[in-house]
Amino acid sequence: MANADSTALRSGSEIERQLAALQQMTVPELRQRHLEVFGHETAGHNKLHLIRKIAWRIQALAEGDLSERARQRATELARDADVRVRPPKGFAPDKCNGHTVAAAVASADSRLPAVGDAIVRTYKGQKLRITVLADGFEYDGQRFRSLSAVAKAISGSHCNGFRFFGLLEAP
User: Strand ranges (DSSP E) for the chain?
Assistant: First the structure.
């Protein structure tokens, strides 16, 4: 039993030595090491990413990788996952201390007036009035999520809403 423990300790210290050596390698050396442990070249040039990827592979080779059953389950979960980058249309954020999450974010921006106040600007001889809402802005009877969307509706081209309305600096 003592012999098996010492063998495991030596292999553990060998892994630690290899992992420590990765920190001292240059990117070309890491790319070569990647080829050695994975059996194919990498297009990556990010040193930290290469170190992490190679370290994972060294440990997986020494201590064992995921079982085939675990791999199949991960594939099933990934295939069935409803992954969204943006919330679906009509999504209503949960309440947080009586305020919507969107209102908390909007009120946190010191460039904006308080909810209910108006932003007034003259554009091409016309006086514009935009009302600040808890979850966006209102202009000409329509609701907008951002000042940039309001500015685009007015000007016809995309521009920074804070710049368009002269709100770049805190009041």
Answer: 95-96, 99-100, 118-123, 126-133, 136-139, 142-144
Widest pairwise Cα distance in the chain: 90
CA–CA gap between residue 129 and residue 120 (Å, rounded): 5
CA distances from 130 to 115, 124, 145, 169, 171 (A): 11, 16, 12, 18, 17
For the chain, domain boundaries: 2-79, 95-164
Q: Which amino acid, one-letter code, is at 134?
A: A
Question: What CA–CA distance (Å, rounded) separates 11 from 66?
Answer: 20
- The pair of structure tokens assigned to 25 is 């390698």
How many CB atoms sit inside 10 A of residue 54's CB?
22
3-state SS string over 144-161? ECCHHHHHHHHHCCCCCH
Which tokens in the block code for residue 151?
Answer: 């500015």
Whole-prediction pTM: 0.40
pLDDT in tens, 44-88: 999 999 999 999 999 888 888 888 899 899 888 888 776 666 666
